């Protein structure tokens, strides 16, 4: 199996984290999935991803003190494998795990993903639990010094020990039985523990072994640019930032990150700008809100993610989606960049503006994205020459958010862009 | 209680680590104590210290793989307090803990010390064990991200939470009941976890609370010189190096460390050069040997430790002590520097030599230590002026290792010193 | 010559920098000296120090662009030695250098100091100028990679090359001829260039060679605490901070610095808290102002500097000194701490308060300084026990700023201190 | 002008540094050029590059002390521009500069390159020399704190000041007059001074302004991978290592560097593995020698450089070139990879082996490079699957160094490779 075939274009979907934090339950997942199937699927949205802590009984119950409660009760099988908490995911009882929920998602024509933490549960190590198909026990492959710095659930693996790869194999065998299509593995992408790099490869190997084409997504960022070819070899997407939220300073910083990673976007290989904090978000965090991004900033975000070809994962509670947001995320001509554009390049970046250009893989089309990084409106000039064109004369332009069309003239082109906003032009060349 | 009164001169004793590693048992402790009482006590040696892992059942049993076995079985009471492993310390059965062994040591006229790790047992946190005299449980005060980087037994404390100081208080209440005179607390001196600095103060507070004058020794080093006054405020001794062993390179480095700390030696406050790897050592590490230090190097070590006024802790298996070593550690005139000298200052240090000078607190005596840091013999010149003296003319000199005496002449003095060796002169001034 | 005898108590004086920046001239120096002789000398103030750039013709002339103008014209003799700019110091013409000005200062009963930069003028290196008494030229001992990071005038020395020590010797021979009593050497104390440590020793050696007891002051800080004994060996005072100005945040930070250095104050050895930005300052910087410190903050500063025994160097334009400031700096009982107290120790420091205690060397007097680090008033409790006293019962107290007296009662004492203020008690014990 | 057109394939040439160090002269340049024209030109070798210090009179004369003599005499015009030292480059007299030598090189059908240091001569700044076409002087645009850490000749520019871009423009106007085709700019690629990044763009701008298609090469490395797109925007080649020499450890490290940079090789954009230390080298360094690389290591180097598509710059004294080396650098089928292959990817890298694969841009040809990183011979297995091929069955193989041909069988292929050696297969697919 060639892992690049698992995701021939950047994955598009929904993730429970931005709205529900650690506390999402089965019914909520189903409601969001239902909405997606009915309203978004036709535009390419297809993944439903259950994020962190689905195995924890008390997740979210002490939110003022902890995001991740230490030493809390978790659901685990005899082979050191975490299972969905049955109180939160009732269909998982009697060892059925996520199989029933995955079946439901699949019945809607969608795909099913889950989040995991790198390593093996600390509880399994302290209990000396078994590893499936192997005579070693969890304490023998858990490294007591190899911990995540923000989540207390796991120990990293002793990657060179017998039983370590077997443990990951046993996890993916289970996920394959369940029908999982997408794994977001956390505490691994930044490689801040020495074993993390090796564990990426072990996850890849476990996917190959399980024979199911499971997309592998790595978190959290920033990923290390000097390891670009390593990520490309073993994963489908990797976060190039720490958690992204609805604050202009993070969006501003993303321009530098995309510049850094621009030549590393390829089939099955996607530097990941993180989830889209659109619509209603933040409830599980105790501050439910409509996204703090202005409309212009939302357009900027969508434009950058699409021309760069980041995966798109919605953070909004879909059951509360408003018309404006829905329209924003269902613009077919914009979303087409994900599947049909390539070779996106940053043409220019200063403190106040950024310009990107890419082209269609099938037609003679150029895509020009012009970003205003200032708070106030400005006119931004682009030379045909900067885009490798002789002239703009007589070229048909369409701005894809406003659907306004025009005809180019001369050697340069001026875009009028609102503060923190963007324009995305489709140019026939 | 003024903690500086607990150790008015640098502590002198024996520690189980250098010979037995993690695996010492009650009988071995007793044998070494017996030897000390019979042979060394009269020279000032008095502490018997049981080093790390006395609570672990399997300590030392997988030595080729681990020094500290992760997730191994430990003896612990219902209040999250570690107890001696009864298989290794039979007198500790039925909750008697170290009380019988301490009684025995005291009956020999000696003092009893034990090693502890900063924090609370990981097992207690995962089991939600109780804390004595407090309604919180171990999971509430254990910080899952605050671990030691080389020992897997403990979690550091949530120092700001209710129950944390109470836990340390409960430990020292127990140690006080047992009759412990000396605590060597590990994973704390280097302050490489943010809570460690606070935990030093909490230990001090727990000693004050327990009403027993327990000497507090902090490990491992190097201690932070910029925190000198903090150590001085709360501890009696603090390691200024990482583990010290019988290799010239470590001894050579100690000269720089002593230079750094020279003005911080005071009553009850001792920068600690670590244990003396003399005689037979290394058995528990799988490489029993007679110290690799040459005789000259041993003299250098003893001279530096004594003029600097480091605590002296013997690493040798005392039951196998040879005459040469015994003589080395029972030179009364040399040991007198520990109790009666002060204001030791490094006069000079180059790549090839070091010179120290101090004076007696009671008599008009100067102590001059001359170290040859080269491999080959050299003559080292000292100017009277360098020592704050007008002249050496007519001053009586005694070299304290050889007991040779002479009379000074003129403004300078030349010491003939063997490679890696030292001379220690007592000068009547 | 024992350099510790050059400054048996912390030097007290005035420095041109805080008011005049780089642009002070002879007349201004004389006016400030005259004021000192008439008004402050009797209280112990005695040094008049000409700070940086006295050799530069255009110093201060492009202040909006540069503090130190690169490649500007300087006065230099044929032996690569900088001389006073004759346009600014008219008495220096015809090679007389600072001799006439020093004579004048001495005639007032004061002492004369100047600032120098570590190294040799870049211009001398590029011109291949001579070195006095030596056949090497400046280019041979200037290290083109060894520069100061904030001043463009000099190259550091090739300390191992013949001619380097000779150059420093030639400088101090000249300073000795001029009658210089105090050298503030800059770009050296922080040891941020590899040669700086060696150059400190070379300066010391040059002073010994010149036979004049010139006090050696090292700048800028922070000095390295791990090099404490090195500074003690070769210099009289060393800055423990970067430049200090009239802003509470710097004053607040000084408490930590003094804590760090508290055990390193001794005869002839003074960790230096930097100049006192009192009265009118800042003119050369283009922002002349009356110090921004509140009166309480000024009292805090004076109290800390005095109990810690920092050198005291006034930054104020003395010719504009107001009565309040004059009174602040001429409190005899407070200034007495500089000469007659010792063993100052920080007793306590939290985010909101600090307590120091020291004692008189001659009488049975304790000095207790209580600092309120909060903005608002607070009562601060001190236990007799914390100061090593059994009780405060019946002890006579005098607060040295207010001159209020009282009699102690019981085991504790409460100081009422204004926000950012201090109390300094003299206690007969 | 599109700078990517200046070097449509990786530049191939010769550089004076590896053999002559700083001391090459005109006659030596000509002799090497003559050899290239007669023997190597037909294989694609075309650049003749005069490396560092061509403007210095005394370059190489104090080699035991300095590689770069500080404050030495240099040839400079009135506009702060360095000129060839006429004693070393006689044809440059009377202001003719490198024009006569460039003409000669061009007459041989070759191209001419020179080395420059970032910035402006220190001497110009200290002399306040003029800048062409501008009323500012060198002291105004030289930054006295912005120096190279290994060469003492220059100050970096005040890039934001008027006159800075004008100075670079004046340099390239001169180089264009001379007929320079290639500039290797030093002290810039690693961006270890804050201005260096900006100066790269300024050099690019100066080339655009001068209207001559001058190839821009940046030194020294390692270049910063996170700045990949910046180098791609403004330069033609950038060093991905520090200086490379004939020692296996450097060659071994290059595999990691090439892995890091593999996706950044494109038309006009070449990550640069540095010069090839082949044949006779090292004379100017005082250790003339035949390359210390074994023949196998030389094959490894050439194979890696060619499949990766690094520029190729010969370090050998061409006038002493032996037959073996000549054959090594004139293998047409190997050199064809530089011009006709693309998308080279590292397939595997372990401590002991590395495998790369690329393909021809014009024909259905795959290139497989197999490297043995161990000292002893080994057989290295490659799966067809790893290269994206279904099978090797019936595919014609040619090993390009030995010219041995074979026919593939089955799903895997085994390469027998000598210690530190390589095989390079051309496979018809």
From TrEMBL, chains A, B, C, D:
The protein's name: Alpha-galactosidase
Keyword set includes Signal: yes
Catalytic activity: Hydrolysis of terminal, non-reducing alpha-D-galactose residues in alpha-D-galactosides, including galactose oligosaccharides, galactomannans and galactolipids
GO BP annotations, alphabetical order: carbohydrate metabolic process
Transmembrane among keywords: no
Alphabetized Pfam families for the sequence: Melibiase_2, Melibiase_C
Family, as annotated: Belongs to the glycosyl hydrolase 27 family.
EC assignment: 3.2.1.22
GO molecular function: alpha-galactosidase activity
InterPro entries linked: Aldolase_TIM (IPR013785), GH (IPR017853), Glyco_hydro_27 (IPR002241), Glyco_hydro_b (IPR013780), Melibiase_C (IPR041233)
Keyword field: Disulfide bond, Glycosidase, Hydrolase, Signal
Source organism per UniProt: Candidatus Galacturonatibacter soehngenii
Residue ranges of domain Alpha galactosidase C-terminal in the record: 352-427
């Amino acid at each position: 199996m060639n892992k690049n075939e698992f995701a021939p274009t950047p994955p598009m979907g929904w993730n429970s984290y931005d709205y529900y934090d650690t506390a999402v339950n089965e019914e909520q997942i189903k409601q969001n999935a239902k909405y997606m199937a009915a309203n978004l699927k036709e535009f390419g949205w297809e993944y439903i991803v259950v994020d962190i802590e689905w195995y924890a009984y008390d997740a979210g119950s002490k939110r003022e003190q902890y995001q991740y409660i230490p030493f809390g009760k978790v659901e685990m099988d005899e082979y050191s494998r975490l299972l969905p908490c049955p109180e939160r995911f009732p269909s998982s009882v009697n060892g059925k795990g996520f199989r029933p929920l995955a079946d439901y998602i699949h019945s809607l024509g969608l795909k099913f993903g889950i989040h995991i933490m790198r390593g093996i549960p600390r509880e399994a190590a302290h209990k000396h639990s078994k590893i499936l198909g192997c005579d070693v026990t969890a304490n023998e492959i858990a490294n007591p010094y190899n911990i995540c710095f923000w989540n207390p659930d796991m120990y990293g693996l002793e990657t060179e020990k017998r039983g370590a790869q077997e443990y990951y194999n046993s996890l993916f065998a289970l996920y394959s039985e369940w029908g999982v299509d997408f794994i977001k593995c956390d505490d691994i992408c930044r490689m801040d523990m020495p074993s993390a790099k090796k564990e990426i490869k072990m996850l890849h190997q476990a996917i190959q072994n399980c024979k199911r084409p499971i997309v592998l997504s790595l978190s959290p960022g920033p990923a290390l640019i000097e390891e670009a070819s390593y990520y490309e070899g073993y994963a489908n997407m990797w976060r190039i930032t720490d958690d992204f939220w609805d604050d202009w300073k993070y969006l501003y910083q993303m321009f530098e990150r995309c510049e850094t990673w621009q030549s590393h976007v390829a089939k099955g290989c996607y530097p990941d700008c993180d989830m889209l904090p659109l619509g209603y978000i933040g409830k599980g965090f105790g501050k439910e809100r409509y996204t703090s991004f202005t409309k212009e900033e939302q357009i900027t975000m969508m434009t950058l993610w699409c021309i760069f070809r980041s995966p798109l994962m919605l953070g909004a509670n879909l059951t509360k989606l408003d018309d404006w947001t829905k329209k924003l995320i269902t613009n077919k001509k914009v979303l087409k960049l994900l599947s049909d554009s390539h070779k996106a390049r940053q043409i220019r970046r200063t403190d106040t503006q950024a310009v990107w250009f890419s082209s269609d893989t099938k037609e003679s089309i150029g895509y020009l994205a012009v970003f205003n990084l200032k708070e106030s409106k400005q006119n931004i000039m682009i030379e045909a020459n900067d885009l490798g064109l002789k002239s703009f004369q007589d070229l048909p332009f369409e701005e894809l958010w406003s659907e306004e069309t025009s005809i180019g003239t001369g050697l340069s082109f001026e875009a009028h862009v609102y503060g923190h906003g963007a324009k995305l032009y489709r140019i026939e060349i």
